[in-house]
Amino acid sequence: MNSLAGVIPPLGKVTALKYLCVTENFLSGSIPPSIGNVSSLHSIFLGQNKFTGLIPESLSHIPKLMELDLSVNSLSGHVPLSLYSMPSLKYLNLGSNGLVGQIPSYIGHSLPNLQFLIVQSNILAGLIPTSLGNASNLQVLDLSNNSMHGPIPSLGSLSNLRQVLLGMNQLEAHDWAFLSSLTNCTQLTKLSLEGNMLKGSIPRSAFNLSTSLKLLALGSNQISGTIPVGIRNLVNLTFLSMENNLISGSIPPTIGNLHKLFILNLSKNKLSGQIPSSIGNITQLGELSLDDNLLNGNIPSSLGLCLELLQLNLSFNSLYGFLSEELFAGPPHFLGVDLSHNNLTGVIPEDIGQLGNVVLLNVSNNLFYGGIPGVLGGCFALSSLRMEGNKLQGQIPASFHALLSIQYINLSRNDLSGNVPKLFENLAMLEKLDLSYNNFEGPIPTGGCFQNSTVVFLDGNKGLCSRSSTLALPLCDGTPDINHHVPLLLIVIPWVTIASLLLLIWFVITLWKKRVFEFPQWDNILSMFPFFAHPKRREVQTFPRNKETLKKVSYGDILKATNCFSSVHTISSTRSGSVYVGRFKYDKSLVAIKVFNLNEPGAYESYFIECEVLRSTRHRNLMRPVTLCSTLDTDNHEFKALIFKFMVNGSLERWLHCEYYSAMPERVLSLGQRICIAADVASALDYVHNQLTPPLVHCDLKPSNILLDHDMTARLGDFGSAKFLFPDLIVPKSLIEVGGTIGYMAPEYGMGCEISTGGDVYSFGVLLLEMLLGKQPTDEMFVDGLSLHKFANSMFPDRVAEILDPHMVHEEHQLCAEVRMHSYIIPLVALGLSCSMESPKDRPGMQDVCAKLCAIKEAYLESRG
């Protein structure tokens, strides 16, 4: 994308152009017919612009045209029939326009080399041509979101077929023969038929489809019958949706054989019986939607084994019984839980408070008895809490103060009692609080959200009163009338003002006499006045850097911010310590709190080296603590912690290898993002190597130690193993003393060589190759002497495209592959190879590496606008 605008000029005099690539711009007007005169063209990519008008018929005059992409524009009218008669065409993408008409019946014969036919999201009508069964090279057929009707033809003769996407049309299936024919397509990975007019029962033979099938979407049809037990054969399915149909019967226990499922959606059907406990065998399940059915029985506790579950919706069924504690005993990954409109009984299990990342919790309209568990306060990331319309009793627990991100609380229509807690005043993100129709009594708080009558609802609590007139409640007995105190204030305020001025004058004179030029700490100012003295408490040891003053944080503050170091708040744990996420009561921003395990060897050294880095450095790409805490805990044991700004996008490792963490492959980095991140890390290393005296070596550079801020700016962190290169630095006697991680550690360290900046350069080279190839240096493929460096070098430069991270390649548009390869990817791989050379003398310095990366970054950003 170059932010190009305007129209494409005539190209009549261009004679040697092979690739025309202007995707993702703002070009408008009509596509000039003169493009058809450029007979040398092989590829035309005009997608994602603002072109209007008709597709020029002259495009079919280009004799060797293999790729044509006009997608995501505002083209209209009919597709010229001559475009369907170009034997050289392999890739045709006309999707997301306003095209009308029909696909000609002879297309399977006239486009014998066609591999990709993508015309989704248009207004095409008519039948799907049966001749497509003769397009033997066809790999992707996408006709979704049109007005196609009639039966789906047999496609079983297409042995190369990988994707069939026919959803959101008006297609029918009289005998489902087309589905049975697809069992011959052994490479089929995606089959999408949702939003059509498919009726009747799915034949058992349909579940003999290729075991390579990963996506099966049959939702929003009129499918009836039952789910066959043969569904167990589709062992590689990751996505199965059959929602909004007329499917009846029970969920077969064999569904537990689909161990790779991430999304299972059977909602809005007529399913009955119990939820099979075998679903707990699908341990990678991320979303389970069974709402709007006729299911009954208990919720199986085996669902607690689905440790990756993000969304759970069992609402609008006839489920009954108690909620099992095992159901919520797993890691706190939930984003949404909806158990509403069932017949569940008993108390809400305390383990539900472990749902640290829940953004929606809805258990309304059931029959829960008992109070709200205090452990709910552990849900620090909870943004919406709905428990209205139950029979909850007791008081609101004090642990609600830990709901730091809460925006919406609805506890209305229960039997809650006691006072309205003042803790609601401190929930800075709270936008709506509904406590109406309970049995609360006494005065309500006056601060925070209670100052705005439009966000607090307290109707139906007869015992409540107010000390102010902000909310429409009766005034509490004994509420002071501020008017009675006005005369007293008129007397006191002048004397207090005069006394304050005299004290200030005396204070300035004292400082002048002592020649104190730096402004002292506020605590020191107060200590000069005995009447302001307060009992000394355990506070942070802070130290200035460049005349900065760090915030003071006590052990108690950290204890409250982490909910007593709850596992819900834990980001990561290692032998040397743990990192927690939390928020201090005086600050709205989330922080990461690194607590050192001082019982482990080397923990003290790690703490002090990070403090020294804090004192000595300042760079936009370095993680620097905002403050620290060095004190005693409640058992008088030494306690040391560093507090950092929370990096909302996590570590680079979680982006490069997301399949190990969230099973959500859509969370990937584009080539441009990888270039920018690599340049950020190189800049940080250049700074610590060449701009500090003495130089600083990180010693443990790897993706998990690179954090990404909200704008994807990379920051190098975890300097616990770092070493300043003092002249008298002792050569480490073992790899343990060096620190570092296998795979990223420079090979010379294993031979007893001294620590040097070249070791960081080696680690950076490995990191850069990992970012491009998507493979860790410890991948199981690297055996018998093969390493990431040797693997990349063996394919360099001619076959580099074969080994790139497939997510990065797919995310970038294939149209400019040649330019992208030679201008950016090959230079990046070459740089990674030079940095990861076995001999330190063969590696460049970080100053040169940083300069090359910055040049690549600037060229890339300039080309993308």
Short description:
This protein is an alpha/beta fold.
Overview of the structural elements:
Helices cover 19% and strands 20% of the residues. It has 865 residues and is of the alpha/beta class. Among the domains are: 482-532; 650-864, Transferase(Phosphotransferase), domain 1, CATH 1.10.510. The strands form eight sheets. It has a 19-stranded parallel sheet, with no helix packed on it. Strands 21-23-25-27-29-31-33-35-37-39 form a ten-stranded parallel sheet, with no helix packed on it. β41 (577-582) and β42 (591-596) form a beta hairpin. The chain starts with a strand and ends with a helix.
Write the layout of secondary structure elements.
Layout: E1 5-6, E2 19-21, E3 26-29, E4 43-45, E5 50-53, E6 67-69, E7 74-78, E8 91-93, E9 98-100, H1 107-110, E10 116-118, E11 125-126, E12 140-142, E13 147-151, E14 163-165, E15 170-172, H2 177-181, E16 190-192, E17 199-201, E18 215-217, E19 222-224, E20 239-241, E21 248-249, E22 263-265, E23 270-273, E24 287-289, E25 294-297, E26 311-313, E27 318-321, E28 336-338, E29 343-346, E30 360-362, E31 367-370, E32 384-386, E33 391-394, E34 408-410, E35 415-418, E36 432-434, E37 439-443, E38 456-457, E39 463-465, H3 486-514, H4 522-527, H5 555-561, E40 570-574, E41 577-582, E42 591-596, H6 603-616, E43 627-632, E44 638-645, H7 652-656, H8 671-690, E45 696-697, E46 706-708, E47 714-716, E48 723-724, H9 735-738, H10 757-773, H11 788-795, H12 806-811, H13 817-835, H14 846-864
Helix pairs in contact: 8-10, 8-14, 10-13, 13-14
